[in-house]
Amino acid sequence: MTPSLLVPLVVGLPLTGAAITLIAGHRRRLQVGVSISTLTLTFALAVAMFVIVDAGTPLAVTVAGWPLPFGIVLYVDRLAALLVAVSSVVLLAVLLFSVGQGAADGDDDTPVSIFHPSYLILAAGIFDAFIAGDLFNLYVGFEMLLVASYVLITLGSTESRIRTGVVYIVVSLVSSILFLSAVAVIYGALGTVNMAQIAERMSELPDNVQLLLHLLLLVAFSVKAAVFPLSFWLPDSYPTAPAPVTAVFAGLLTKVGVYALIRTETQLFPDSDVNVLLLVVALATMIVGVLGAVAQAELKRILSFTLVSHVGYMVFGLAIVTEAAIGATIYYMVHHIVVQTTLFLAVGLIERRAGSTSILKVKGLFGAAPLIAALYLIPALNLGGLPPFSGFIGKFALFDAAAQVGTPLMYTLIAGGIVTSLLTLYALMRAWNLSFWREEDDSVETEARIQHLGAAVAADEVSERRVIPRIMTAATMGMVAVSVGLTVFAGPLYEICDRIGSALLEPVSLVDLGEVEESS
């Protein structure tokens, strides 16, 4: 078997696993075994493909025997292989967390017969988006993960989940319509949806048409990536979902949108003149997102707003358009996938232990649950950018790349990034202080906080305290270990991201794909 034939398995394995788990119905152990095995094998495939593409050329395969440029091209370079591997780890850890939750609580929160097929379809959609070589297949990947996410975000069918799920669905559908419209316009203008061929033909179009096509894709992907001002839907949608669903959404779904932005800016429109616009949007995303986090009193909402603000860092790096900046963006993207997921898992543990995620209602957890305190503190310091964690390394690399450009706008973005980092640390450490260190409430002080943050407190749903299965704690500990590993092995990982950044700025042509394998 040639290496290229490994590529379709990245999507085929999760889809096969989803079919098996759907047929298995209520056979919990079989579903769990199939899901875990599928994601483990996908991780092994991604590592093998990365080793192959890092040593030579990207892997590409056309599906169902259709020739280029008409066939569906699956394309794996260093970036795609790295993101599939990281996503597999995150999906596996969250799956283990959900297995522990399901074993302890039954099927009320995450019905097993529905959860596992939907979860694997979500994984297949994410992987398909990462390895898509044409815009229409990228659209298909988005739709696969969105259809699965519609099911997952409404699991349990509570009133709040249905209400926020409807908003999420409507926004996602609008974004998909915009994306599909952009694909149709691009095909009408260029006669192809193959990304390599689009890049070759784009210069043939008038500048105003190129700008229109560019902005259509930017708007569609910015909704999916939660870039301000198109991020309004996220803080209300994610916190109401079950803890494992929220964790995987926060870690991965917006990053698929960021990934699409990276491909658009580096491959389809490398000579773009919208970088100033992207820089302004990046600054607004960082500042507005972190100010929203500071104003919240509920942990899931705090993390949801920080998720928005840190997408701004990735847009910032992407808009600098240098090899160093793109490499730093990839490193920060990997960091954020891992750390944001870890924090949401830690908050899931807090919710079970304390029965709430409101920082005004939770108290004294440091003495009652010191392990949970550590599992929250480490990724919180990391996300806040405290040295020597990976968050600091990624931000410093972005700031250094911007300083090398040296324009006033770049220095403004650096200042905005520093302020965002400090406010992120403040919001997360305030939550730590109130939830873990506080033993007794000062009634006057608490009342003042409630008046200041009343809306956020009202949004919190208080539930009964529940036992925390060991597998949930172990899954969170594993993710904390991975987040620490991003710091310990920052040197080799950053070298990989540097190579990715250099390769992304080199155009991919049909000549590079001319020897692709055919898959039936």
Q: What does this molecule look like?
A:
The structure is a single chain. The chain is mainly alpha-helical and 520 residues long. The protein has 21 helices and three strands. The chain has a three-stranded mixed β-sheet with strand order 2-1-3. A hairpin with an 8-residue loop joins strand 1 and strand 2.
Short description:
The protein is mainly alpha-helical. Helices cover 74% and strands 2% of the residues. β1 (59-63) and β2 (72-76) form a beta hairpin.
Key traits:
520 residues; mainly alpha; three-stranded mixed β-sheet; 3 strands
Helicity level, as a percent range?
over 70%
Low-confidence stretches: 454-460
- The best one-word shape is globular
Number of separate helices? 21
Report the major sheet. Answer: 3 strands, mixed
Average predicted local confidence, pLDDT: 85
Classification by helices and strands: mainly alpha
Report how far apart the termini are.
14 Å
Widest sheet, order of strands? 2-1-3
